[in-house]
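Structure (tokenized):
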């Protein structure tokens, strides 16, 4: 079972597809691949070698734009393949400052000073 990209995009309220998403490799997350069966180890190795490894201690969080989650179901012996878009946003700051940090310039016509925005 699969979904076409046009169906996924049409079902989203606000889609976030842009070319920069695909300039860096995704963060690969493998779930339930710790079994000792040789075919499961082979699948895990195959997926790990499809994408370059990421050093989690050195990686710039702003460069990670996608996450690829692959889950192995031991009962049905099927793989669930999920591809997510990741967006880093500032947390714990005012709405005006958040817009400035994301390089979206707010309408400041109703303010006398930038301190009113912050």
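Design, position by position:
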């Amino acid at each position: 079972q699969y979904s076409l990209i046009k169906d996924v995009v049409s079902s989203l309220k606000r889609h976030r597809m842009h070319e920069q998403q695909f300039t860096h490799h995704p963060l690969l997350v493998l779930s339930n691949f710790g079994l000792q069966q040789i075919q499961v180890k082979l699948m895990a190795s195959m997926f790990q070698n499809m994408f370059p490894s990421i050093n989690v201690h050195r990686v710039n969080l702003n460069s990670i734009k996608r996450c690829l989650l692959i889950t192995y179901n031991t009962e049905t012996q099927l793989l669930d393949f999920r591809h997510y878009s990741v967006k880093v946003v500032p947390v714990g700051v005012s709405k005006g400052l958040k817009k400035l940090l994301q390089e979206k310039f707010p309408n400041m016509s109703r303010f006398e000073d930038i301190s009113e925005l912050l």
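Reviewer-requested clarification: The chain has one domain: 5-90. Residues 97 and 118 are 6 Å apart (CA to CA).
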